[in-house]
Design a protein that fits this description.
alpha/beta, binds adenosine-5'-diphosphate, 6-stranded mixed beta sheet, 4-stranded antiparallel beta sheet, Rossmann fold, 325 residues, Alpha-Beta Plaits, binds magnesium ion
């Protein structure tokens, strides 16, 4: 059963185009010119119950806009969507109780209150029964290791601790759908890992359906089997993460060891030398030429060791999007 369904979903923003200079401004008083930004363009996808799907794309691709529409914060210009059977922008109370949106760059907690107070407020809003609330809070704070921070003013928490509290706030009412927009942005490596592990465990234990955006490919690689890539508002790829390598990786990385590489530069015709240290060389070679380059290398040099690696996903994504990402 699909929990999230989007069909031809589109969002066009109309923004007032400012003209330069004084006369441009005066002209603008009479003839307003608008520019249309097609932020999301005929997007179609569906997510099954319990899936944890990565939502990727360069800055400005339209990810946040899609998540906002699925949360009912924005009306689409056209198209349809259903989440748990609800049309999000109809903002049914029943729907509100069953999903959460967490944005890494925005905070929902009260800055001047301890997190616990904000949680209490959520308890009221969602009418969570006291014992259920306490048990859930206990479990979440234990999983995220912030039990001791509950009574600290939110403004005094570290960024990582604050993000953990945001996640707790989003999960207290046990939503069935979780939309995570850059939940690890700006966090230190240790907090990032902790949040990542938490997301994985939570998804496994509760079969919560999760759509996750992140700029950190480690997040995506460790959490998501399936990814949807959006580019200029359109779906560019929807499938297994592993398939991206097969479909889009233009090169492989040869890892070579040879005494002669201590002194000899490798000719550029073999490939791009990414790194050269002592007798070790990492060589970037176009996929189609890997076999012939290996052959040439063995003919020319007394190679001691060789391994062939796939290009890192990060590089492949960067290749796909060129400089935009
Ligand atoms: N409220 C808005 N008004 C006008 N343009 C917007 C608004 N929100 C987003 N956009 C534009 O829509 C496009 C998609 O933005 P966004 O969904 O935030 O991308 P992403 O989250 O993938 O970085 C961008 O070109 C952005 O500038
Ligand atoms: Mg965004």
């Amino acid at each position: 059963m699909s929990v999230i369904e989007a069909e031809n979903l589109a969002k066009i923003f109309r923004v007032y185009k400012k003209k330069a200079g004084f006369w441009g401004g005066v002209q603008g008083l009479f003839h307003r010119e608008y520019e249309e930004i097609r932020a999301v363009d005929s997007v179609r996808f569906s997510v099954a119950e319990g899936e944890l799907v990565g939502f990727l794309g360069p800055n400005g691709a339209g990810k946040t806009t899609v998540l906002k529409m699925l949360s009912g914060l924005l009306f689409p210009t056209s198209g349809k969507a259903r989440v748990l059977g609800f049309v999000p922008w109809e903002r049914a109370d029943e729907y509100r109780r069953q999903f959460s949106l967490v944005m890494g760059q925005k905070n929902q907690l009260w800055w001047d209150l301890p997190a616990r107070e904000s949680f209490e407020l959520n308890r009221e809003i969602y009418a969570i029964e006291r014992p259920v609330f306490e048990q859930k809070l206990d479990e979440l704070t234990a999983l995220l290791d912030v039990k001791e921070k509950l009574n600290v003013m939110v403004r005094e928490l570290s960024l990582g601790e604050r993000m953990k509290m945001e996640l707790i706030a989003a999960l207290l009412h046990s939503p069935r759908v979780l939309l995570l927009d850059e939940p690890t942005i700006g966090l230190d490596v240790v907090s990032q890992k902790r949040v990542r592990e938490f997301i994985r465990e939570y998804n496994r234990n509760y079969r919560v359906t999760i759509l996750l955006t992140s700029h950190y490919m480690t997040d995506i690689e460790e959490l998501c089997e399936r990814v949807i890539i959006i580019h200029r508002g359109k779906i560019f790829f929807d499938g297994k993460l592993a398939e991206i390598v097969n479909r889009f990786a233009g090169h492989k990385i040869l890892h070579l060891v040879c005494r002669e590489f201590r002194t000899a530069e490798l000719p550029a015709s073999l490939g791009e030398t990414l790194e050269r240290r002592d007798g070790m060389v990492r060589l970037k070679v176009p996929r189609a030429r890997v076999a012939s380059v290996c052959h040439d290398l063995f003919v020319r040099y007394p190679i001691e060791d060789i391994s062939i690696e796939e290009a890192p996903i990060e590089d492949i994504i960067r290749e796909i999007f060129g400089q935009e990402g």
